[in-house]
Amino acid sequence: MKTKVGDIEDLFIHLERIFSVGGIWPFKQTYIRFAIYISYYMVYLVMAYTDLYDVFGNLELMVMNLVETVAYTMTFMAVWLIRCSNLLKHVINAVKKDMMERKFENSEEERIYYNYNYTSKIFTYGSIVGMFITVMLLYFRPLLMSFSSSDPAVHNNTESFILPYRVHTFFDISNNYAYILMYLYLFPMFYASICHMAAICLLVILVFHICGELSILSYRIKNVKTYSQDMIVNRIRSFVRIHLKIIWMAKSVDNIFNLILLDELLGNSVVLAISMYYVITNLEISEMATCCTFIFFAIIALVMLFGYCLIGDQLTQQCINVQDAYYQCDWYEMPLSCKKCLLICMIHGQVMLYLTAARFYIFSLNSFTDVIKTSMAYLSMLRTLL
Q1: Segment 48-91, tens digit of pLDDT
Q2: What is d(CA 317, CA 180) in angstroms, rounded to the nearest whole number?
Q3: Is the pTM of this model over 0.85?
Q4: I need a surface site. Which of 40, 76, 307, 366 has the fewest CB within 10 A?
Q5: What are the angstrom distances between the C-alpha of 104 and each of 7, 31, 237?
Q6: What is the pLDDT of residues 139-172, one digit of tens each?
Q7: What distance in Å separates the CA atoms of residue 260 and residue 84, rounded to the nearest whole number?
Q8: How is 40-107 classified by DSSP, letter by letter?
Q9: CB 345 within 8 A of CB 326
Q10: How many CA atoms lie within 13 A of 209 on its CB side?
């Protein structure tokens, strides 16, 4: 048991280590470190948007810039929120307290809870390692292309001084010394990509913890008849307290992340549309490697959108399961005092929990088709206008 609890708590420890590098973790008084990193980040965004202005009219360069700039703008918002949200600190503390004080009544509850948290663990480790490999390849791709070229003219050409990110440098980098300095200057953006994925992992951990709590609650409600009449009233009262706490946690998570999720929804939809537009219109005339890069960007955006819809659907489904459990616990055979308590539980059970984008778009598997339709609408508009 302790080993399993320790494994789950390790997820927060790993996220804390990642965010602490840039002073982002909200529980540490690293304000100077955060100010330095956020200032650096703002300078990068200025250079990125300046480059977008410079290449305006060149479809390929605009698309390449937007894919990067939109993603790092979303990361900037996530970093700022994680550092400054007091509500997030309360939610994390509540989740850690639940993990430390967790007492299972039987092996089935233990299995239910750790199935969700094991999924969080696999997602966290897999996604962060995958993001690390991806950004490593993207960061060192210009160097690999330069070193792999056998043509001496390529090394002497100014076009060979390609940076890993689309930015306006404001100074000449056509000599090796300036190019190396600028290349190294952009290295911290490697860390920004890891922070983006870590923020998503934090959201997944919190949502799956809530789903596990809801699943255990529905299991206990269905089996409340196994207790004596004297204990049923106390059990139902405990259900009310647990359910109210879960509702607070779920609504708090949505309040914290709904603006970030709106940014993710719009940003990934745009990235998906412009990436597919570039591939469709330039497949015959562009290099296969460039087209594969944009296909890769489109796949990442699609997977991210599907992931948000999946965890949002799981949260809503577990909420429905709790609601159904209240009606399946043979409440009509219980004493009058129990029926009054159950009535309160049923009223709370009607409160549906969602993961939303700015509280107007609900993430679910059914709404995932709407995301695809929106992206295809963007794609159709691009093909019409350009």
Answers
A1: 999 989 888 777 778 778 878 888 988 998 899 899 889 999 99
A2: 52
A3: yes
A4: 366
A5: 17, 40, 18
A6: 887 777 666 555 554 445 545 678 888 898 888 8
A7: 14
A8: HHHHHHHHHHHHHHHTTT-HHHHHHHHHHHHHHHHHHHHHHHHHH-HHHHHHHHHHHHHHHH---SSH
A9: yes
A10: 29
pLDDT in tens, 273-300: 887 887 777 766 556 666 777 777 788 8
Looking up tokens 């605009």 gives 62
| C-alpha 327: how far from chain center | 34
Question: In whole angstroms, what is the distance from residue 360 CA to residue 267 CA?
Answer: 16
Query: If 0-12 CB within 10 Å is exposed, 13-18 middle and 19+ buried, where does residue 178 land?
Result: middle
Closest by CA to 5, choosing from 94, 85, 83, 121, is 121
Of residues 134, 54, 96, the one with CA closest to residue 296: 134
247/301 Cα distance (integer angstroms) = 30
Q: Which positions ≥6 away from 140 have C-beta within 8 Å?
A: 164
Q: Report how far residue 48's alpha carbon sits from residue 41's, in angstroms, rounded to the nearest whole number.
A: 10
